[in-house]
Please model this.
Amino acid sequence: MRGYDVVIVGAGSVGTPAAWAMARAGLKVLVLDRMPSVGQGSNKAAIGGVRATHSDPAKIRLCLRTIELLSSWKELYGRDVEWRSGGYVFVAYTPQQEKTFKDLLKVQHAYGLDIDWYDAPELLEIVPDLNPRGLIGGTYSPQDGHCSPLLVCHAFFEEARRFGAEFHFGERLVDVVVVGGRVRAVRTDKGQYEARVLLNAAGAWAKEVGELVGLEHPVWPDCHEAGVTEPVAHFLDPMIVDTRPGPGSANFYFHQLATGQLTFCITPDPPIVGMDRRETSSFLPQVSRRMIELMPRLSNLRVRRTWRGLYPMTPDGSPIVGWAEEVHGYLMAIGMCGQGVMIGPGLGELLARMVTQELRPEDHEILEILSPNRAFIREEALR
Amino acid sequence: MRIQKHPILPIPQRKKISFFFKGRELSAYEGDTIAAALFAHGIRIFGHHPKDGAPQGIFCANGQCAQCLVIADGLPVKACMTLVGEGMRVEPVEGLPVLPKVDAPPPMREPETIEVPALIIGGGPAGLAAAIELGKRKVKTLLVDDKHLLGGKLVLQTHRFFGSSDAVYAGTRGIDIARKLADQVHSLPSVEVWLSSTALAVFSDRKVGVLRRGEEYVLISPKVLLVATGARERSLVFKGNTLPGVYGAGAFQTLVNRDLVKAARRLFIVGGGNVGLIAGYHALQAGIEVVGLCEALPECGGYKVHRDKLARLGVPIFTSHTILSANGEEQVESVTIAQVDEKFRPIPGTEKTFPCDTVLIAVGLDPVDEFYHKAREFGITAFAAGDAREVAEASAAIFSGRIAGLRVARALGLEDTEIPHEWLRLAGILASRPGPRIQPGLPAQEEGVFPVLHCYEEIPCNPCSSACPLGLIYVDPADIRKTPRYLGGEGKGCVGCARCVLACPGLAITLVDYRQDPRWPIVTVPYEFLADEIEPGGRVVAVGEGGEALGEVEVVEVLAAPRNDRTVLLKLRVPRAIAKKVAGVRKEREGPAPLPSPVIRMGDEEIVCRCERVTAGEVRKLIREGVRDMNQIKAITRAGMGACGGKTCGPLIKRLFREEGVPDEEVIDYVKRPLFVEVPLKVFSGAGKGD
Model:
C-alpha cells in the first residue's frame, strides 16, 4: 500500500491549490476526484470574480493573498490565468443599499482595503453604461478583479504535479480507515492508500465525505445558473454586482472577460437546494431583464451558452475550515458558499501551514472565525 | 456572379436594392442574405479573427458558427442568416465588434408559454412526413423550422431521388418533393407551422425554448417531442482549412441552389460520398467548373450512378487521394492533393496542385441529436427521425418520419397507430448502404429497340420498373435494392417510349434503336444541363458508363418536352460498335493543367477549432500528456468555447485522439450546453414585445 502525508478529496477550486501549497512544502500528496479531470465539479461553473472586499476578516485576509498569487502568477510561473484588476462595483439604487455599503466601508477600511463610495456622477465615469435612472451611487474597489477559474485551476494542477503531487481521477472515496481515533488510510473504488491527513475539499460533495468519518457537516449545495456571451470589444472593467432582489432572484453580477465575452450569474430566490445542475427555462428571461434594466447597452449582446453550478452553502454563509476534534488527521476546507475560486488559493497555503504546523500569528484569527465548532449565528452582510 | 440561367431551377424576378460594404455602394436583390449579396460581388472575406488575424468568411451558411459575422447598421450579425436591406451599411468585423450604445432599457415582459400535444423540431423530409401522419389523425401539432421555407435540405436538391416510387416520391426532384410535402402539411388544419423559428434549447422543466420568427422568445411545453433536425457536416483538418473558399457541401448548395449565386468559378471536392458527388453535379449545372474530386478510399463511397454521372461529365476522380492543403494568402487560390498508401498516409512525390477558388469538404455527416438526448435526459417523451436518428438518404428520412409520426400519435394515446410491418421493412431497405456491384454485362441483342440498364450496384430504387408501360423492367418488389432486369425479347418487346430513360434518377438508362439503320443505331440519353448550345446536327462526345470518352457523335434530335420534368432527351447517331456502351455525353472541355507542386508538410499548426483558432498541435500536446477529458482540453485551450459550441471541432478532436492511438472509450466527450445558436439578451427579455 502506498503511503502519503495527505490525501485530498476533490481536485477543484480548493483541493488543487491546497495540493500545490502542500507539495511545495515538501509533503507527499495524493488528490482523489471522482470526475474525469481537474476542476470538473463546480470550478468550471464559476465565473471568476475575485474580491478581497468582504466584511468578514477571515475572507478578507484569504482573498488578499489570492489576489497576490493570481496577479503575479504569470510572472512567476509563466501561465496566463487571465487575471485582470478590473475592480468590483456594487451599485446602489435604494437608500437601504447605500446605507449597507457605507456601513461596510468602516470594517473594510480598517483592514486597509482599497474601496470607496462614489456618488452617481462619479460612478458613471467608472462605468458609463450603467442605467443612470435612480442610481444613487456605489462602491468601487479597484484592486479586486477577475480571472479564468478554469485556467487558475489548471495552473495550480500543473504546478502541484511539478512538485510531485499525484492526482487520481475517476476514483471515488469509499471508506476512511480510522484507528484509535486517527486517520490511517483511505479506501477507494480502485485501491487503498495510507495517509495521516485526510483533507475534505469536496465542495458540494463534502457531506458525503464527512459521513465516511461519522461526521455531519452543515453544508448544503444550492444551484445558481450562469451564462456567457459572444466576445465584443472591451467596454467594461469591473465586476458589476446588483444586490437588489428581483422577482424570483436575489443578487446578480457580471463582468467582461479578458477575452471579450461577458459572463453573468444570478442567485435564485428562493434558493434551488440540491444537486440538480440541469438547465432551466426560467434563467434567461429572468437574468436578461435585470441585466438590460441595469445596463441597457447589453440588449444586443448575444448569449452563447448557459450552465448551472453548485454553491456549497453553510448556515452563516462562511466557509468551514479546521481540524475535526472527533477524528485526528481529518481536515475540513468545505462550504465555500460559491467563493471557492477566490478563497481557494489563499486558503491552500493556510491549509499547508496547518499540516506542517507552521501557522503564522494572523492565521489564528482566520481559523477562529471559520472554525467547524463555531455557533453559526453570524450572517455576513455581503455574501 | 449570379446564376442567370439554370437547367432545373427557375430564376425568380426580384426587386433590386442597394446596400453598402466598406462604404462602397453595391446592388442586391430583395430577399438576399448579406452573405449571398456579398458573394454575388465576389466578396468572400468578411473580416479577420481577433486572435490571429486569420481571414473569416462563410463556413456553415446555416447560422451555426459565427465565421461570417459582419456589422450591419452598427450591429454584429451573422451574414448567412440576416437579410440585406435597402441602404444597409455593412462593415467587415476586424478584431472584436463594438457593442452599440443603447440609451434606455426597452419595455420587457415574461415569455409566453404555449402547450401543445406534439412539437416537431425541423421541417425537412422527416419532420414533414411525421407532421402529415399527425395531421391526418387531427393531432394538434406545432412544427418549427429555422429556415424561411419548408423542406430542409430538399430545397437544395435539384436531382431526382432514388427510392420506391409508390412509397416515397422516387424519381422526383428534391425541390419538388419539398413542395409536395409542404403543400400537404399546409392543407392539414391541425398542424401549425412556424418558419424562421429556431429551437434554442430543451430545458429540464420540460420546455423547449424557441426563437419565433427570428425575434420573439417563447417557451413550448409539448406532451411529445419529435426531433427531426437533420445532420451536420463533418470537417477536416489540413493546412489552410479555414481559408475563405473552404466550406461544406451544404453551405455551397445553399449559396448556389437557394441563393442562386455562382459561389465559385473553379471547384475542387474532397470526399466521394453521395453528398460530394451530388454537390459536384449541382456545381456543373450552375455553370461552375469542377476541377476534380478526391476520395481517400480506393472507391467512392456514394452511389455508383452518381459517381458515373460526374465522371461522364469529365470530372477527374482521384481515389486513394487526400487533400494536403488549400493554398492562398487571404482566400483559396489552389488545392494540393496526394495519393495515400493503405494506411492513408500521403505518399511523397505524388502531390498534385490544381488552381481553384473553392474547396468543398464532403467527408460525411453526423446526426444533430442534442435536443433528443437532452429531452430523454429530462424525461420528455421524445423521438428522433430522419438524419437526426440515422444518417441516410432523404427517401429513408421520409419513411423514418412517417413511422415517427405514428409513434408520436401512439404516445399521445391515439388508437389505430399500428406501424405497418411493410413500413418498417421499407425503412430498413431505404436506409441501407449500397450493396454489392454486379458484373456489368451489355445485352447481346442487336436489333429492334431496347433499353440498356447501366445500373450495376444494389441501391434502394425502383422508378424504372414502374415507368415501363409494358412492365418490361423488373425490380424485385420484395427487395427494391436488387438491380433491374430487362424482360423483353422473344416476341414481347420494347416500343421505345423512353419513359424509363426519363424516370431513372441515376441517369443510368439509355435506349438503343436499330430500327432505322442497324449500322448507325439511334441512342437516346438523358441530359440535365442547359441544352441551348446543343443543336440537331451538332457534335458531342459520347462517353461510357464510367466517363471514358468513346468518340464524337452526331446529335439528331433534342427533345425538351415540358412533361419531361426538365430532363432533356438527346438522340444520337452512334456507330454500331459502341452504341450499347454509350451512357451519356459531354461537351468537350479541358480542365486546368496541374500546377507544379510545392511539397507541403502536414504540421501541428493546422486549425482544429476554427471559432477560437486552436491548432492540432496544441490539442495533440495535451493528448500526449495524458489528457483524456475533452472538457479539460476545452478549459485549457478554449477549443469548443466558440460560437458553434464544439459542433465542428468535437469530431476533429476525437479523430486526433484516434490518431494518437487512444481508444474511443477512454475519451470523455464535451458536456453539451444550451444554447443551440447565439441570441441577443433582449430577445430573452421580451423587449419590444409589450402590448
Summary: Chain B is about 20% helix and 25% strand. The longest helix of chain B spans residues 394-411. Chain B touches chain A through 53 residues (CB under 8 Å).
